[in-house]
Design goal:
- By secondary structure, the protein is an alpha+beta fold.
- It has one domain (about 65-80, about 115-340).
- It is about 25% helix and about 25% strand.
- The protein is built from seven helices and 13 strands.
- The chain has helices spanning about 1-25, 145-155, 175-185, 265-270, 290-295, 315-320, 320-340; strands spanning about 65-70, 110-125, 135-140, 140, 160, 175, 185-195, 200-210, 220-230, 235-250, 255-260, 260-265, 300-305.
- Strands 2, 5, 6, 9, 10, 11, 12 and 13 form an eight-stranded antiparallel β-sheet that branches. The chain has a three-stranded mixed β-sheet with strand order 1-8-7.
- The longest helix is centred in the N-terminal third of the chain and has 24 residues, at about 1-25.
């Protein structure tokens, strides 16, 4: 009897499994019925809910490539310095310190017994020349000498001239905007990947600073001078003709110098009288920048001479050894000094 009961139980279990498979198989390919709201009254028409399909972000068409501008200010010069609202010193100092420089003594060309052009460089890293890169500020603005040159070009109508190709004859005048572009770099475009749509690349307009000088690299200033022995006055004269800031830039991993522009010194003298030179020993003993150049209160070295130079080459082109260049510069100084001394008879 037990065997008959166990066999019957097994047969009933198998039949239930087959019915279950058939029930679930009938649901394949059919949509599930919508849930019925049992809170509604009987006899009310049934409303089938509308299901809004959710679209993926990939089906949204990507936007067109855009254009952005990089407004990063590159440089560090030309900063607007706020003026003090009170007197910074105990003295009743005038705000306008400008004054007219002394007129040069007239030198008649027919009286020139000897003349020579000299190019020399002032390295502001030397202890005697550290006033050229003094970063202080007062009511006249930034006290760095390069900033004073920029202010003179921008506000005092002092002309700047191109130094492209080694030109130092003041042949091509530059506007202040040209100098500003030179300091900040040139405009360029690059492709930037869109953050939302990785397949879209936007055009970004940037300032390429590859050939733009760093403000800290402008510590050299080149002077063009003319030395004249005047037989009427019986003495040696030195007149500065032009000043040019020289920057160091890195090209292909190598450091090289770049002359930014030239300024005609006789036109710059009046602007230089507005600014006082930093004096590390005595604040009351300061002089103007015009007085510094006229009294030659700076240290420099000669980089080129017009005498015995038929190929118009600088000392760096004639002598590869920097020590020999310095020695040749000292020889040029001694030659000019001896020429003047030999004219005198005792």
């Amino acid at each position: 009897m037990k065997k008959i009961f166990i066999i019957g139980l097994a047969i009933s279990t198998i039949s239930l499994g087959v019915n279950a498979q058939g029930g679930f198989g009938g649901l394949k390919g059919k949509k599930t019925a919508a849930a019925v709201d049992t809170t509604k009254k009987t006899g009310a028409p049934s409303v089938t809910p509308v299901v809004t399909p959710i679209t993926s972000s990939s089906s949204v068409p990507p936007p067109k490539p855009g254009k952005t501008y990089d407004t990063t200010i590159v440089g560090g010069f030309g900063e607007v310095v706020l003026k003090s609202l009170r007197n910074e010193t105990l003295a009743d100092r005038k705000t306008d310190r400008s004054k007219n420089p002394l007129e040069y003594e007239h030198l008649r060309e027919d009286d020139w017994l000897y003349s020579e052009f000299i190019w020399r460089e002032i390295d502001a890293r030397e202890k005697m020349n550290q006033s050229f890169i003094y970063p202080g500020k007062d009511n006249t603005g930034d006290q760095r000498f390069f900033s004073i040159l920029l202010n003179a070009i921008q506000n005092d109508n002092v002309a700047a001239f191109s130094a492209e190709g080694g030109d130092d004859r003041f042949t091509k005048q530059l506007a202040y905007d040209d100098i500003s572009k030179m300091m900040k770099g040139k405009l360029d475009t690059i492709l930037v990947q869109n953050a939302t749509f990785p397949t879209v690349y936007d055009t970004s307009i940037i300032i390429d600073t590859k050939f733009a000088p760093n403000p800290d690299s402008i510590y050299t200033f080149r002077l063009k001078e003319q030395w004249i022995v005047d037989k009427e006055a019986g003495r040696l004269f030195c007149r500065i003709i032009g000043i040019a800031p020289v920057a160091k830039i890195v090209v292909n991993g190598k450091s090289t110098t770049k002359t930014l522009f030239w300024v005609y010194y006789p036109e710059l003298r009046k602007s230089l009288n507005k600014y006082n030179v930093y004096n590390p020993k005595n604040y009351a003993g300061r002089m103007t920048w015009e007085e510094l150049f006229e009294s030659r209160f700076f240290s420099s070295y000669i980089v080129k001479s017009s005498n015995n130079n038929p190929n118009d080459k600088s000392l760096s082109q004639l002598f590869k050894n920097p020590l020999f260049r310095l020695l040749e510069g000292e020889n040029i100084k001694e030659r000019i000094f001896n020429y003047e001394q030999d004219l005198w008879s005792y």
